[in-house]
Fold this protein.
Amino acid sequence: MGLSLALALRKRGLQVLIVERGEPGREASYAAAGMIADFGPELPPSLLSLATASARIYPEFVHELQDESGLNVDLRNNGTLLLSGIATQGWEPGWEAEDGLEPISAEAVAELEPELKLGDHRAFFRKERSVDPRVLTAAAIQAAKHREVDFVSGSAVDHVIFSAGRVAGVFAGKTIYSAPVVVNCAGAWAGSIPPCPFPTRAVKGQILAMIGGPAVRHVVRGADVYLVPRTDGRILIGATLENAGYDKRVEPEVVQRLQKGAIELIPALRGAKLHQAWAGLRPGTADGLPILGETSSRGYFVAAGHYRDGILLAPITAEVMAQIICREKCEYDLGAFSPVRFEEKQLAMG
């Protein structure tokens, strides 16, 4: 999120410094599967307009990153197959016409994904994209360096500095970095940076990649697992939702459960090999919505709490946050995502 916003701000001529506790893009972005899914019962209704806009501008966003970095981020346009249990959760007649969710026959599924075992499930198709978040992030880093964004890595921000009621910079790694604008893009750690705490929390997700299996062309979303193919032949299988704090350990029994769920959908995966397993920490919030906008302290902004939709929402978040920071007109109502909503609640409780 910070990288995307840095690029949008550099377009507007601002000098940008990214202060990173570890390496840029190595947390939730590095762990994500990369589905550009702007539809689903798990997507809060208030996010739909932003999600749709972000999905629409994704090809242009990717084109710019690839052009400036020379990297191919594996943006795939083959679409998604949704099976009953996920597609029909909250499903109502008419959704397929309004949101591009098309019921398809078992014969059509067999043509699209010959190895997919449909069983008694109903199947739906939706035109969606997917991307490789790790290469996407690497491309964003290269593009940021190309646009002369500065980086300080390995220094966690200890606290935000204020003076006369407005932001003055941050203190990190025993160093003060002065700035008239500070944006908290710290993901699951956004709420741990004083003095303005926000109720972000880490939601663990375990995920794995398999190789040597059958060719899979589409993203497949089942009731218990999803499969995301990569152009290089890997198939990502995910993912858990765990309130486990900041624990990023990979558990063998979870890996086995994910493998079993994937094999139930595509039996030919039984002969595939486990390539890698990892865990990431999604940045959740108390009300399930991201935190976007300026705090009650002038010059201090937040762009965090995107939960499961950070990769999807990165392009539009960068654009609307850049508009707000530069005092431009924003065409979207971001009131539901304002960080002030938590500050007001704290005052009411106090």
Summary: The chain has nine helices and 18 strands. The chain has two domains: 2-73+133-199+286-349, 80-127+202-284.
